[in-house]
Amino acid sequence: MSRERDFYNLNPKPMKTFKQYLRSLKACNDAIEWAKDKPIEQVVAECHRGDWLLWLAKKCGVELQPLTLAKAHCANTVRHLMTDKRSVKAVDVAIAFGEGRATRDELDAAANAAAAYAAYSADAAYGNAAAADAANQQQTADICRKYIGNLIIEKVNQQLNQPNL
């Protein structure tokens, strides 16, 4: 009977490490290499890349409202580089949505308006974003820790403790 149980995986084992979890999500090699064998709590506490934490939050299932709040505050760090009022308004509406003061329809409308401008001015936006990226990675990581750090830890731990089916 025990061989049958193993064959049909009726007693599955939980995933062992956060590194295995990152690999299962197809994280970039740089993130996997940086995380090494750190537990999720240490990764969230020490990660120097806000974009990695946002990616992980999305992948592990952090809810839209707190995720949007964190993303909006990260975007707000480059507000001074935004040349169009639609982009600024999109950040403001995203923060309002994250705080429960705007609807999903308002968020979508603001995002669509900003995206229309971004498509028109993609070259300038790319140059500004590249310059800002190197300067604010740690700042955005701190923002992610503040708004969604505990949610990431909770969601990842839930998934690490689920049996592999």
Can you tag this structure with a few keywords?
mainly alpha; single chain; 73% helix; disordered N terminus; 165 residues
Instruction: Tally the structural domains.
Output: 1
Which regions are unreliable across 5 or more consecutive residues at pLDDT < 50? Answer: 1-7
What is the terminal-to-terminal distance?
19 Å
Strand content: under 5%
Radius of gyration (Å): 19 Å
**Can you tell me the overall shape?**
globular
Structural class based on helices, strands and sheet pairing: mainly alpha
* Helix percentage range: over 70%
Number of strands: 0
Largest sheet: none
Q: Would you tell me the overall average pLDDT?
A: 86
Order of helices and strands: HHHHHHHHH
- Total DSSP helices: 9
Structure description:
The protein has helices at 2-7, 18-24, 29-35, 40-46, 50-60, 64-76, 85-98, 104-120, 122-160. The longest helix has 39 residues, at 122-160. It contains 9 helices and no strands. It starts with a helix and ends in a 5-residue tail after the last helix. Helix 5 packs antiparallel against helix 6 (64-76), helix 6 (64-76) packs antiparallel against helix 7 (85-98) and helix 7 (85-98) packs antiparallel against helix 8 (104-120). Helices cover 73% and strands 0% of the residues. The protein has one domain (16-159). The protein is an all-alpha fold.
